[in-house]
């Protein structure tokens, strides 16, 4: 029997230490949780594996203490090591079928998608829990060209798989993303780069009530 957690509506928090104004990933996550975020993804493209593990162990416990879902980006091994709630991968990372064999039926798998073909394939053929839909707008956080808001509209109208809208989303353009049907949205630089992450998250979370 499968006993998998669903991704919650609202803001999906992702760490991003390029933008964090000197705050550690741990501190950013602490503030995100204080602001009301219920799901966190650890994503770090700078640290080496050993440094990541040290940090992830502490962030995992922080999330557990606060009842917040904890997802690890890319590193399936680290996710298993810390008993994370799930893994998020891109199109060129380990295949979701292989990840499922490693992490089991009860854990979350998220997959980034950048086209209707990838989203349809994910819904039809992959045993995953949600897809990322983006980058909707230009972003410097990830080296992928924007796909435009039409892609979000396509997924919201035609597919049933839960999705997280991402990429270039800010406080000033999020209303339109919600209006297009996104129930879970991720903003990286806008949140971790804010002077007060707590206040920024509160301001954004209120839009989902
Ligand atoms: N994934 P920001 S876009 C981590 O489209 C990530 O899969 C994307 O950062 C995807 O909110 C992205 O700063 C970066 O634009 C999002």
Automatic annotation (TrEMBL):
<dbReference type="Pfam" id="PF02581">
    <property type="entry name" value="TMP-TENI"/>
</dbReference>
<feature type="binding site">
    <location>
        <position position="93"/>
    </location>
    <ligand>
        <name>Mg(2+)</name>
    </ligand>
</feature>
<feature type="binding site">
    <location>
        <position position="112"/>
    </location>
    <ligand>
        <name>4-amino-2-methyl-5-(diphosphooxymethyl)pyrimidine</name>
    </ligand>
</feature>
<comment type="similarity">
    <text>Belongs to the thiamine-phosphate synthase family.</text>
</comment>
<feature type="binding site">
    <location>
        <position position="168"/>
    </location>
    <ligand>
        <name>2-[(2R,5Z)-2-carboxy-4-methylthiazol-5(2H)-ylidene]ethyl phosphate</name>
    </ligand>
</feature>
<feature type="binding site">
    <location>
        <begin position="188"/>
        <end position="189"/>
    </location>
    <ligand>
        <name>2-[(2R,5Z)-2-carboxy-4-methylthiazol-5(2H)-ylidene]ethyl phosphate</name>
    </ligand>
</feature>
<comment type="pathway">
    <text>Cofactor biosynthesis; thiamine diphosphate biosynthesis; thiamine phosphate from 4-amino-2-methyl-5-diphosphomethylpyrimidine and 4-methyl-5-(2-phosphoethyl)-thiazole: step 1/1.</text>
</comment>
<keyword id="KW-0784">Thiamine biosynthesis</keyword>
<keyword id="KW-0175">Coiled coil</keyword>
<feature type="binding site">
    <location>
        <position position="142"/>
    </location>
    <ligand>
        <name>4-amino-2-methyl-5-(diphosphooxymethyl)pyrimidine</name>
    </ligand>
</feature>
<keyword id="KW-0479">Metal-binding</keyword>
<dbReference type="InterPro" id="IPR034291">
    <property type="entry name" value="TMP_synthase"/>
</dbReference>
<dbReference type="InterPro" id="IPR036206">
    <property type="entry name" value="ThiamineP_synth_sf"/>
</dbReference>
<comment type="function">
    <text>Condenses 4-methyl-5-(beta-hydroxyethyl)thiazole monophosphate (THZ-P) and 2-methyl-4-amino-5-hydroxymethyl pyrimidine pyrophosphate (HMP-PP) to form thiamine monophosphate (TMP).</text>
</comment>
<feature type="binding site">
    <location>
        <begin position="41"/>
        <end position="45"/>
    </location>
    <ligand>
        <name>4-amino-2-methyl-5-(diphosphooxymethyl)pyrimidine</name>
    </ligand>
</feature>
<dbReference type="InterPro" id="IPR013785">
    <property type="entry name" value="Aldolase_TIM"/>
</dbReference>
<keyword id="KW-0808">Transferase</keyword>
<feature type="domain" description="Thiamine phosphate synthase/TenI">
    <location>
        <begin position="11"/>
        <end position="191"/>
    </location>
</feature>
<feature type="binding site">
    <location>
        <begin position="139"/>
        <end position="141"/>
    </location>
    <ligand>
        <name>2-[(2R,5Z)-2-carboxy-4-methylthiazol-5(2H)-ylidene]ethyl phosphate</name>
    </ligand>
</feature>
<dbReference type="GO" id="GO:0004789">
    <property type="term" value="F:thiamine-phosphate diphosphorylase activity"/>
</dbReference>
<dbReference type="InterPro" id="IPR022998">
    <property type="entry name" value="ThiamineP_synth_TenI"/>
</dbReference>
<feature type="binding site">
    <location>
        <position position="74"/>
    </location>
    <ligand>
        <name>Mg(2+)</name>
    </ligand>
</feature>
<feature type="coiled-coil region">
    <location>
        <begin position="39"/>
        <end position="66"/>
    </location>
</feature>
<keyword id="KW-0460">Magnesium</keyword>
<feature type="binding site">
    <location>
        <position position="73"/>
    </location>
    <ligand>
        <name>4-amino-2-methyl-5-(diphosphooxymethyl)pyrimidine</name>
    </ligand>
</feature>
<protein>
    <recommendedName>
        <fullName>Thiamine-phosphate synthase</fullName>
        <ecNumber>2.5.1.3</ecNumber>
    </recommendedName>
</protein>
